[in-house]
Amino acid sequence: MTKNILIINANPKRSSFCQHLADTYEREAREQNNTQRVNLSALQFNPSLDCGYDDEQPLEPDLQVFQQQIAWADHVVIVSPIWWGSLPAKFKGLFDRSFLPGFAFKYQGYTPVPLLTDKTSRIILTMDAPPQSLQDQAASVIAQLDVFTLQFSGFQPSAVSLFGSVVAASESEKSAWVNEIKQLGRAAK
């Protein structure tokens, strides 16, 4: 079955291992699926939700397009580094500004109701910290991104891939990671 797949390179750097992984996934997935791509480094928007939900903050054109891409997607693949045990600030800002009430969820009384249902996702995380701390650092990122953002908005629980330490990895280790991403892309997982 053909899927609509949105691939998000969530590294704000223009060139990174995350970009290489996102490129690899996209190249394989587009053979059998419809793909769209977001590179965080190319987006222009204020990442701060300045008034919370008290006032409407107009969406910049890049955020309007991002919302359209999220709505279009059946499957969202996020490739992000872990920085300081968290997501890059601009990436968090992308969700703060675009996953808004009326788009990602609505309230019925005080109860949030998800609006982005019937969607799946894969989270691919990289980090430079020692491999023995990968699980510990990733746990808070996965909770924030998967449970409290994607699932809160209606996505099914994410599949997760963890890669690290990137800075200490040999070329053969990186090659094995890239091959894993190729397989995931081919399978649209």
Task: Note the total helix count.
Answer: 5
Portion in strands: 15-25%
The tally of structural domains comes to 1
Low-confidence runs: none
Q: Could you give the order of strands across the largest sheet? A: 2-1-3-6-7
Q: Identify the CATH architecture.
A: 3-Layer(aba) Sandwich
CATH topology: Rossmann fold
Task: Please compute the radius of gyration using only Cα atoms.
Answer: 16 Å
Characterize the biggest β-sheet.
5 strands, parallel
CATH superfamily, by name, is Flavodoxin domain
- Roughly how much helix do the residues carry, as a percent range? 25-40%
Order of helices and strands: EHEHEHEEEHEH
Overall SS class: alpha/beta
Q: In total, how many beta strands?
A: 7
Family: Belongs to the NAD(P)H dehydrogenase (quinone) family.
Protein name: Flavodoxin-like fold domain-containing protein
Domain Flavodoxin-like fold: 3-178
Keywords: Oxidoreductase
